[in-house]
Amino acid sequence: MRMSPLPPLNALIAFEAAVRHMSFTRAAVELNLSQSAVSRQIVHLEQFLGRKLFIREQRQLTLTRAGETYALQVRSILDDCVNATAEVMKSTGENELTVACTAGVAQFWMAPRLGDFRRQYPNFKLRLIVRDGVTSLSSFEFDIGLYYLKQAALPGFETTYAIPEKVFPVCAPAYLAACRERYGLGEHQKLEPEHLLQETLLTLEDAQSLWISWRDWFRYHDVTISPATQAVIFNHYPTLVEMAVFEQGIVLGWRHVIDSQIERGRLVVASNHWASHGGGYYLITPDERRENVATRCFKRWLLEISPQGE
Known about the structure:
The protein is an alpha/beta fold. It has helices spanning 9-21, 24-31, 35-49, 65-89, 103-120, 173-183, 193-196, 214-220, 237-245, 259-263, 293-305; strands spanning 54-57, 60-63, 96-101, 125-130, 144-149, 157-164, 167-171, 201-204, 231-234, 250-254, 268-269, 280-286.
């Protein structure tokens, strides 16, 4: 049986946000839309209903009587939809665990260590999801995450400090050897920031602007990066690391995350200079989600093995 009349879902979402903020502009910011796009959605919904929902006055929105009634019903419907979706996306079993992290953390930090966790807790069902920006996470889709933050406060989440931040350039051993020869350096000397300006910088097209960029790193060492500096830009950190392994340039590495590649001899530290925003990697858990047994065990395990004070 066809459901009718059924209003456009996007228009309902725009309406709910506009009611909550009492502003098309602030609703647009929340929904990552233009103000005019939100306005068009509201007009579309009003035309569909045949009723005005807002009284539009200069610099002020007021709900009509129909708008007030409809807003309560729409919010209840959307809440039900969110809750139903959450139930499908995330089981609440005590032994089930969904962990979220970036692609780099997943490949270079989690993958080498998760075997230990699974040996300790063989009955837990583990699911790992990759989201490169903490802001792209939905609190309904994971139990616990490991993400870089400049500071501990993250609205909607409880945070626990786990891994300190120390960022330095890394490259393949053969690439560093060629640089030493090029700049007349000794066998054990590392590169200075001025040397790095002459090299190919493997650059992350940042999905999370909190991370240190090459520009940030040079600024911490009072060096201005030139537009003429050679760079390869990619939006996937593990790919940049592989390019560094294949001697295609120098990439920034986060200590403890990139250590597995250094220990295997695939990469070496290219410079003794390092930088930090003063942040670190934090365990994050959604405020509204009850921590089940698996989540509590994972948090305890990770904090036991993490180098929090190094």
